[in-house]
Structure formats: structure tokens, C-alpha cells
Amino acid sequence: MTTPDPVLIQVPERLLTERLVIAAPRAGLGQALNAAVCESLDDLRPWMPWAQTAPSIEESETVLRHQLARFILRSDLAYQFYLREPGSEQAGRLLGGTGLHRFDWAVRRFEIGYWIRTSAQGRGYVSEAVQALAGMAFDELRARRVEIRMDERNLRSRAVAERCGFEFEGVLRRDTLCPSGELRDTRVYSRIA
């Protein structure tokens, strides 16, 4: 059986949870993304190569437009997540980013990534977004395997994977460079269909 051209695969552009709106990238939101990233640089810098210096608003808008292009091509499925306005389906303040990355459409294997702005940490928003994204991957994209990978030292990210029911599989020793250029160990968690 051949895999269809990924461009033809139906991927939800919007997911709703009790407290969140999880939405595909949209042009014109560079200022909101920029504010969230700039607020959170100190927390993101140790883990995220793209968060080493404060971007300009124009750079943040460029990131969103590239994310949108990759979303349309189904080569990477980035989402932003927003606080859901009470009593409606409207998106409020941008809280962070998540998505399905480094995937294989033939195998139906996906990796979930995530980050959250500093002022929104500790309220369960990331876990809520991860549960929604994993559910969509299994239910709508027919995932066979969904992974979460993180730096061995990233305790907050590890806690999210465990809270969301992902099973610890092991540590890939010295497999990746961290943003500072040093070798790092990567923890791998997964859920399978």
C-alpha cells in the first residue's frame, strides 16, 4: 500500500480543550509570538536552539510564516496554543507552542514538542495541549507511535511526558548537541496504538 502525498492528508487546523485553543500557525501573529518568546528566553535557552537571543517581531513573523508553509506541505505540524476565552471558542492570550515533528507518514510515527511562556508555567496547560495533540494523532492521523524526547536534565519536560501517560523507553546517550554545543543525553518516552 502506498502512502498518499502528505499534502492530501487531512490534518485538523484547530483543536479545543476545556481551557485551550490549539491552532495551526497564522500569518500576522508575529507580535504575539515575539512577546511570548522574549518573556521566556531565560527558561527556553537551555533547551531550545531557536531561543538563544531575543528575536525581532519581523523574525517572529517569519518563523510563523515558515511554520504555516510546512504545515500546508505536511512536513512539520507546528501549532500555537492560546488561553480559551471563557464561555466561547475564541483564542485569547498566546501561551506557547506545540506540534507534531520529525514524523514518518508511512510508519505513522510522530514526535510531540512543546514550550510555554514563563508566566503561564505550572498550571497544567502543556499537559492539556499534549493530551489533545496525542489524541488527535491517534484518532485522526492514525498514529501507531507518538514520542516525546527531551534533554535528560529537563525535569519539567520529563514531568509532562509522565503526567500524560507516556512510557519511558530509555536514554539515548550523547546523541544530540544542546544549544551550548555540548553533547547531551536524550530521554525517550512513547505511547503506541
TL;DR?
This protein is an alpha+beta fold and 193 residues long. The chain is built from 4 helices and 8 strands, in the order ββααβββαβαββ.
CATH superfamily placement: Gcn5-related N-acetyltransferase (GNAT)
- Helix and strand string, N-terminal first? EEHHEEEHEHEE
The figure for the number of domains is 1
Average pLDDT over all residues: 95
CATH class categorisation: Alpha Beta
**Which fold does the CATH topology refer to?**
Aminopeptidase
Q: Helix fraction?
A: 25-40%
Number of strands: 8
- Stretches where pLDDT is under 50 for at least 5 consecutive residues are none
Name the quaternary structure. Answer: single chain
- Secondary-structure class: alpha+beta
Number of helices: 4
- Rg computed from alpha carbons, rounded to a whole number of angstroms: 16 Å
Spatial strand sequence of the major β-sheet: 1-2-3-4-5-6-8-7
Span between N and C termini?
20 Å
Can you put this structure into words, describing what you see?
By secondary structure, the chain is of the alpha+beta class. It is built from four helices and eight strands, in the order ββααβββαβαββ. The protein has helices spanning 30-44, 57-73, 125-139, 155-163, and strands at residues 14-16, 20-23, 77-84, 91-104, 109-116, 145-151, 167-177, 183-192. An eight-stranded mixed β-sheet has the order 1-2-3-4-5-6-8-7, sandwiched between helices. Helix 1 (30-44) crosses helix 2 (57-73).
